Amino acid sequence: MGGSIEPAGGHAELTLPRIAAFRILEDVEQGAYADRAASRRLEGMAPLERGLALELAYGAIRLRARLDAELLHLVDRPLERLDRAVLLWLRLGLYQLRETRVPDHAAVHETIEGFRSTAGPRAAGFVNAVLRSAGRLGEEERAALFPTLEADPIAHLVTHGSHPEWLVRRWLERWPVETVARLVELNNRPPRVTLRTLGDEAGRREAERRAAADPRLEAIAGFPGCWELTEGDPTELLARLPAIVQDPAASAVVEYIGPIEGGVSVDVCAAPGGKCIALAAGGEAGSVVAADRSPERLMRVVETTRARDVDLLALVADGRKPPFRAARTVLLDTPCSGTGVLRRRADARWRIGPDRLAALVKLQRELLDAAAELVEPGGTLVYATCSLEPEENEGQVSDFLSRQADFSRCPAPRRQALPADVLGAEDELRVLPWQRGTDGSYAVRLRRSA
Q1: Fewest beta carbons less than 10 Å away: which of 275, 284, 328, 347?
Q2: Residue 2: inside a domain
């Protein structure tokens, strides 16, 4: 998973990223979202330090259950009886020992120094002893701590796979154990950086020509205009290339929607904005309206459009009560469980649960009915999620069609732009992570009768 190389510099430069990672873990424990905590805690840090802090924090969050399963064998008391700072630093130290190329002695030493700096010296000896014991465990001893996939697939995927049991069980009811194991493995890897070029047909061809000339970019097979950044940070590249950071699974939704048909198009839950920005870049000026109930998140969309020189209208609005007249195309990229993007949202697997899923399904139903009212006769409603769960995808659409008699499924206008294996028999889009190593996404086009 890892592969960190320590930043050059003195002792303070080595310890600082670990302290920042610890603060992110603290914030998440107190209810903050990991990405927001990271944005706040890492502000102003040098790129190398920031990268190390992110890997340590996000890695320790993703693999929390795996780390805790091993710690249970290394400490002499239940983990819930440990001081919170002790447990968080043990997770950070053990993650370095198991998942990065940081030398063991450096991982232990810097973890202890970070612990002393944030929690004082009282329990430093205990943390040191546990991590040194962990460092002495051989590979076979560590493997023996976890049930094997063959002997007990659920226990293996919950502990070593570090996923919640309720989610593992529901996935195993739908897919073979090998598929679920592959999905869990992908979710535990940091996502690669991928880009989508922007522009109308001519502009995008020029952007793709320029992207192809950059040795750091590799075209992603099956997904037009999508590129993997093989090294470095995308910031400098995005300053001179008309593109946005976007996973191929999200880009596939844009291709599935197809060219804007004319008139006004509305994205009723636009943030973080990648899909509506891509649509606006390929259409006429002012033809796309981006709406979201969060002013803060919508402002990020606006900032991206300005940086990419894309023209769209932005409006703060609740998708359940959209203040619009009829639109030719309405995109509902709905709030969802995000089970197709768990690798990208380090803490999401620990936030969702059956109750949260049920609440989201109810919200999606309300948003769908409200979005349907916006679609003019003969217009199109596109419903999309980044979920793998049937209640949020095909089940939600079937329920919608049963109560909205003037809507029916309609085919994608640019089927040839998408891999054949992501298009279903009923013309829906379904990108599954284990197919091509992407995020997961779902979308369906629904036409209102004229």
Answers
A1: 284
A2: no
* DSSP secondary structure string for all residues of 52-73: HHHHHHHHHHHTHHHHHHHHTT
Q: Contact at 8 Å (CB) between 260 and 296?
A: no
Q: Is the peptide bond before 335 cis (omega within 30 degrees of 0)?
A: no
238 occurs within a structural domain: no
Question: pLDDT per residue over 96-125, tens digit each?
Answer: 999 999 999 999 999 999 999 999 999 999
Cβ–Cβ < 8 Å for 385, 336: yes
For the entire predicted model, the pTM comes to: 0.92
The DSSP secondary structure of 178-227, one letter per residue, reads HHHHHHHHHHTSPPPPEEEE-SSHHHHHHHHHHHHT-TTEEEPTTSTTEE
CA 2 to chain centre: 18
Q: Which two tokens stand for residue 397?
A: 């659409």
Distance separating alpha carbons of residues 276 and 265, to the nearest angstrom: 9
Task: Judge whether 336 counts as a catalytic residue.
Answer: no
Query: Both 22 and 137 in a single domain?
Result: yes
Which of 413, 261, 266 is closest to 327 using CA atoms? 266
Give yes or no: residues 39 and 141 share one domain.
yes
Tell me if 211 is assigned to some domain: no
Mention every residue, 6+ apart, whose C-beta is less than 8 A from residue 291.
266, 267, 268, 269, 270, 298, 314, 315, 316, 317, 319, 322, 324
Same domain, 123 and 42: yes
For the chain, the domain total comes to 3
Whether residue 321 contacts residue 369, with contact meaning beta carbons closer than 8 Å, is answered with no
Residue 284 has pLDDT above 70, yes or no: no
User: Does residue 131 share a domain with residue 171?
Assistant: no
Which of 269, 276, 336, 386 is catalytic? The answer is 386
The tokens describing 73, both together, are 């064998």
**305, 164: one domain:** no
154 Cβ contact partners less than 8 Å away, ≥ 6 residues apart: 165, 168, 169, 172
Helix (H, G, I), strand (E, B) or coil at 175: coil
Q: What is the CATH number of the domain that holds 61?
A: 1.10.940.10
Cα separations in angstroms, 290 against 266, 298, 317, 402: 6, 8, 9, 28
What is residue 14's predicted lDDT score, i.e. its pLDDT? 61
Q: Domain of 76?
A: 11-145
CATH of the domain at 391: 3.40.50.150
